[in-house]
Design goal:
- 49% of the residues lie in helices and 15% in strands.
- By secondary structure, the protein is α+β, with helices and mostly antiparallel strands.
- The longest helix has 64 residues.
- It starts with a helix and ends with a strand.
Length: 466
């Protein structure tokens, strides 16, 4: 607001100064011509100074140079006045309202009614009897300052006009001149009072308008510091549709994405640690317990061959063989299956080959070459490993059927075993089935388990894929 005040003053002061100085010159010129012809101007007189030339409007504020006595040197223009060119002119008007004489006869010819040549304020003042009347007027030839003065005998009215330039004027020079004229205080009184009234109102309005914005920015700053400290649960309600409101919404979306990414990273790290631990346990079992069981079986077999009737040796050989087979099944479950960039189909076939080669389980594999996202590959691979291990270890299955197909936007994994089966509705001590259901639910799929005691188990998993 202060800047607006300064700009207004900077633009208006030069114009006011220019108008003040020029109007004073016009007033002095009108009075000088009124005093010069006390008995009235003779009809047809060409007023003004001979040899002076009118200048185009806009070249100089007063068009003509002022005389030493403070009046304007009005040029006597005996020829035609170019169309659109502003001129400084003096005109004598009779009491009946007709033009008596002028400094530009082509523009203001004698005998013509003044009402057809001059503005209404000029002719209407003839009957008022005031000595001096002045003003501004916008004409077809540009803006003019004019003045009206009676002659000494009050038989005629002297009218004078001069073009008034509204173009750019040096504000510094204009201001100094205004001070010399004593008009600065009057000019500044109104704007100063307005400024004193506007500044407190503007400050109060600014504080009230920015208070809510500052509060929102501070809340955003606190949330940013919380995220920097590791708290990704921070959310900000969107408090508007402006830039700050959009920033709050984007900040909340960012924190949610960061939280989800961090949770996924933690889950991945936990899963990797679990896989690494299972691999370590599998190595320990293979290197220690499996070797001991194999040695015990060999000793029992030697004792049985040396003494065929030794029932204890036969029992030891049978029990060690069963323990070794269970241990191999456990190792197959513990050893993590790996995709290794070969794809899901290849990894499932590796699992089937491991059970067939190491445990002697007959596996009928029908695996199509499917392409699915990485998270679906990982989940289906773990489900295959879990289902085969459960069938062999808990169901005693000696035959498995594994099928992997993809059609109608779904990938289907089906595992059928000929084991002892179980009741799906009954509670179970293990968590294998729960893990399978959880994995499938995370992918938005379904897991169907069909089983009964004595007739094996059929697991069918369907997962949607893009």
């Amino acid at each position: 607001m202060v800047l607006v005040e300064v700009l207004v003053l900077g633009l208006q002061v030069p114009l006011l100064v220019n108008g003040t100085q020029l109007q004073a010159q016009v007033d002095a010129t009108a009075k000088s011509y009124a005093e010069r012809y006390p008995g009235g101007v003779p009809t047809g007189t060409v007023l003004g100074l001979r040899g002076q030339q009118a200048k185009p409007a806009g070249v100089q504020p007063g068009i003509v140079q002022p005389a030493e006595d403070g009046t304007l040197a009005v040029p006597a223009i005996t020829g035609a006045v170019p169309s659109g060119q502003g001129v400084t002119a003096v005109v004598a008007i009779a009491a009946d309202g007709t033009v008596v004489a002028s400094s530009a006869p082509a523009l203001y010819p004698p005998g013509r009614p003044a009402t057809s040549e001059f503005p209404v304020p000029v002719t209407s003042q003839i009957a008022v009897g005031q000595l001096v009347k002045s003003g501004t007027l916008s004409t077809s030839r540009g803006s003019v300052l004019w003045d009206l003065a009676w002659t000494a005998g009050r038989t005629q009215v002297i009218y004078i006009q001069t073009p008034w330039s509204t173009g750019f004027i040096n504000p510094i020079t204009a201001w100094s001149e205004l001070v010399q004229l004593g008009e600065a205080r009057a000019l500044l009184s109104g704007p100063s009072a307005l400024l004193l009234a506007i500044v407190p109102v503007g400050v109060l309005f600014g504080l009230l308008a920015s208070r809510r914005l500052v509060r929102r920015v501070r809340r955003l700053e606190e949330a940013t510091l919380a995220v920097a400290d590791g708290d990704y649960t921070v959310t900000l309600p969107s408090s508007g549709r402006d830039e700050v409101g959009r920033l709050e919404a984007n900040f909340t979306a960012m924190t949610r994405q960061l939280g989800s990414a961090l949770a996924a990273e933690r889950q991945r790290a936990t899963s990797d640690a679990r896989v690494a631990e299972r691999a370590r346990i599998a190595r320990e079992i293979h290197d220690a317990i499996s070797q001991h069981l194999f040695g015990l079986r060999m000793i029992a077999a030697g004792m049985r061959r040396a003494d065929p009737d030794n029932q204890q040796a036969r029992a030891i050989e049978r029990i060690s063989a069963e323990a070794l087979r269970d241990m191999q099944s456990l190792l197959a479950e513990l050893r993590p299956a790996s995709l290794d960039g070969a794809g899901l189909s290849s990894a499932v076939l590796d699992i089937c080959a491991a059970y067939q080669d190491r445990l002697g389980v007959a596996v009928d594999a029908s695996v199509d070459d499917v392409t699915v996202p990485a998270d679906v590959e990982h989940a289906l691979l773990r489900i295959t490993q879990e289902a085969c291990a459960n069938a062999v270890r808990h169901g005693g299955a000696r035959r498995l059927a594994v099928a992997l197909t993809c059609q109608d936007g779904q990938v289907e994994l089906a595992i059928l075993d000929g084991g002892s089966g179980f009741d799906p509705a009954a509670p179970h001590a293990g968590s294998g089935l729960a893990h399978i259901r959880d994995r499938v639910a995370e992918l938005g799929g379904t897991a169907d388990i069909d089983s009964a005691p004595g007739r094996g188990t059929a697991l069918t998993v369907r997962v949607p894929v893009p």
